[in-house]
Amino acid sequence: MPFKQPDIDTSPKVSDEIRKTTCYMCACRCGINVHMKDGKVAYIEGNRDHPVNQGVLCAKGSAGIMQVNAPSRLRKPLKRVGPRGSGEYQEISWEEAMSTAVGWLTELHETAPHKLAFFTGRDQSQSFTSFWAQHFGTPNYAAHGGFCSVNMAAGGIYTMGGAFWEFGQPDWDHTKLFMLFGVAEDHDSNPIKMGIGKIKARGAKVIGVNPVRNGYNAVADEWVGITPGTDGLFILALVHELMKAGKIDLDYLAQFTNAPVLIDKDTGLFLRDDDGKPLVVDRVTGKLTPFDQKDVQPSLSATHEGHRTVMALMAEKYLDPKYAPEAVAEATGVSAKKIKTIAAELARVAFDEAIELDREWTDFRGNTHSKMTGRPVSMHAMRGISAHSNGFQTCRALHVLQILLGTVETPGGFRFKPPYPKPVEAHPTPHGDRRPGKALEGPHLGFPRGPEDLLLDSDGNPQRIDKAFSWENPMSAHGLMHMVISNAYAQDPYPIDTLFMYMANMSWNSSMNTSGVIEMLTARNDSGGYRIPRIIYSDAYSSEMVAYADLILPDTTYLERHDCISLLDRPICEADGAADAIRWPVIEPDRDVRGFQSVLIELGARIGLPAFMKEDGSPKWKDYADYIVNHERKPGIGPLSGWRGEDGDKTGRGAVNPDQMDAYVANGGFHIHHVPSEAAYYKPWNTAYQDWAVDLGLYDSPQPYLFQLYSEPMRKFQRAAEGHGDRVPPEHLRDRLKEVMDPLPIWYEPFEEQAVDTKEYPIHALTQRPMAMYHSWGTQNAWLRQLHGKNPLYVPQKLWDEHGFKEGDWARVTSTHGSITVPVALQAALNENTVWTWNAIGKRKGAWALSEDAPEAREGFLLNHLIHELLPPKGDGLRWANSDPITGQAAWFDLRVKIERVDAPAEAQPAMKPLKSPVEQGPDTLEWKVGK
């Protein structure tokens, strides 16, 4: 009987329809194609037309389908009916939830708006949430950056008008040497993977500087296993070597930086003319000249009546033998030979392999150049160098290294993404006036130019609950989210009434001192009331923080709502184009939930905030989608730049287009406006780019500027600490500010190392986020849990042998603050005095709809238990934040510990009491069928 081939459909229909939107599984914000079948999500792939990922999609992005089907999704508004932490809630209607919130918030708005602390997590809509808080009138608003990477953002903006990642990118098409500093895999993962692949295919070299060799560092051609907290010292040793060898770009420094600017010998401030312009000496005429005068040839070495140039001060500082490779080798864990070799490699590629592009361009002085010269060395850095108490100066040092080589905004180097570059002067200063019933006069967050911009009351006390923009953290551009609960508990500088948080898991992985924060959230006054009287929280999932709130406003998942990735906020631009994007509801929620931004719209109207009301008293916007299209931050400028104007034919500037959202959806959820070829490089000084940026609405007028190797705002704060001016810091802070506010980058030992006995606690301890997860969102994801269901403490060979560890062993890890008992694993490619683990894998029992015996709850753990938001007491009775003293950046990575081998417990310690979940536990097997 002949064989009959079975009928097999070898090309089953994947979907009925493709809906294109923007991923939310990390902060890359890649374009995705969501395949729909019978009205449900069947499959997610990358959008090949999208400027960010060009079709590439990682494990997180593909697993987004599991986020919208997660059992941990909240289903209805909740009000607490038992004690905080009990998990005892009652489901309520949205009307009751909104009426409750309006009742609490209206009273505060009208009487004491500063008693509302409104802080949001990694929500990617900060332009809107800050707008809401500004018009509520509270000074107490900030988002995620203060405990993530404010040192990186502020260090870059104060030095060169932009920073890494969202602000710029390597010139992947031309770079020949790429250095990464402190970069884990969770940030910008697809673009970096694509870029590294591109340059390695071309034969370019990659150097990774990180205590841990994994991810990007694992594919680097050379790995520098640096000692945590010493990156700044290593960088300044490279600067020392380059300056000693004369391998710096003198023409670039003279033309585009403040290296030739004269410093007043009496004040340390810039020497200026009557119009306030910094002065240089023209090396042709020998005369004092404004820096921006046409045909000026600034001298880097001139003096004038005892006043010296920034370059002279830099040479004096960095040629000091204390920065020699031999002097820093022991502290950094990097041999003098390796430091010298890397410095020589940087110099060789920058100068011997320089490239030229035949593109004519005109600079801001009116001089025309026939070519664009490039030094093909590029760099990228992230949280690893930022999350230290010396991180701001380290980030500045790295930018100085780039600038000395002439590798910023030149072919082959680091390139800014619109709307950057911007000088500090283009940014707002912070606002914090506390006026009942009134909006703030400007945005909360900003960039102080000097002591006059601090947010202090008439007695010199901080205006903000987190003490941002005070003498304790003068340049805290992102606020101090990690200090909000601690300060509110301590009622320092004052008590608050309501803590309102969005997507900020502050009772678990997003806080230092996790156990202590839980105690603060549940602490009561002598009268029996809670020390923080009211907590409102919004999240899409049953996270650990849900159990400690009084009112829960359930959010949608990212495929069920509108979002705006705006040029006013954190856009998706590339160096060659200004781009923004939307999310839109590709599916409708199957639960009684609402997008948080739309909830804020309704709250603003019901409270009666004028900015949210029409003249007739009716709500100005019906929801967030309405706001995105119809809001104008200033005439002709709104959240989205594409398809503006009544006919949708304008870009950047233009009247409101009621069909704008439809245009974005039809284009795949994004818009991009390309930078002209002649404007692609030298953006801070290129008249073609400046004019393009003005036309697009990024600037109101051209704003060329010099890179700030020497920071005058920092010198102003330093002078105040020396006793000059009307505003001076309290006595106990003066010595610290005089040291750390050096206007030229310096290195100092991290504060925890100064405060603890490093012989008793000899080991550095770090966390990093894995590429497959982002914050805590991924651990409840059925696909991603298979990649990281638990996390060991990785131990280097030296410590492994010293303690006699073997596979399957456990260790007790102890800091000055606490102790944990956790499983260990060997990693050879690790700094010999450092241990580390993945962040946010460990979960508290009862959260995220996981079973109590889930591996995340039994063998997963948090290093956060060992880290305190305060430094060890100094005996002076003061509370010293465990933060960078300049920006307030949380110093997560300063942690020092000791370890010992112990018998394996039944589960990782500390093992906290299970939470009672407001959602049902997920099934053992999560499965569903889409379509027939």
UniProtKB/TrEMBL annotation:
Q: Among its keywords, does the record have Metal-binding?
A: yes
The UniProt entry, under SUPFAM superfamilies, shows: ADC-like, Formate dehydrogenase/DMSO reductase, domains 1-3
Gene3D superfamilies per the UniProt record, alphabetical? 2.40.40.20, 3.30.200.210, 3.40.50.740, Dimethylsulfoxide Reductase, domain 2
Q: Which organism is it from?
A: Cognatishimia activa
User: Main subcellular localization, coarse class?
Assistant: other
| Family from the record | Belongs to the prokaryotic molybdopterin-containing oxidoreductase family.
Q: Does the keyword 4Fe-4S apply?
A: yes
Tell me the protein's name.
Answer: Molybdopterin-dependent oxidoreductase
Q: What is the lineage of its organism?
A: Bacteria, Pseudomonadati, Pseudomonadota, Alphaproteobacteria, Rhodobacterales
Which cofactors are reported in the record for this sequence? [4Fe-4S] cluster
Write down any Gene Ontology CC term.
Answer: cell envelope
Query: Which residues fall in a compositionally biased region of kind Basic and acidic residues?
Result: 424-438
Under InterPro entries, the record lists: Asp_de-COase-like_dom_sf, MoPterin_dinucl-bd_dom, Mopterin_OxRdtase, Mopterin_OxRdtase_4Fe-4S_dom
For this UniProt record, give its keywords in alphabetical order, as a comma-separated list. Answer: 4Fe-4S, Iron, Iron-sulfur, Metal-binding, Oxidoreductase
Disordered: annotated span: 420-446, 907-932
Subcellular localization: Cell envelope
Q: Name one GO molecular function term.
A: molybdopterin cofactor binding
Q: Which residues form the 4Fe-4S Mo/W bis-MGD-type domain?
A: 16-72
Q: Which residues form a coiled coil?
A: none
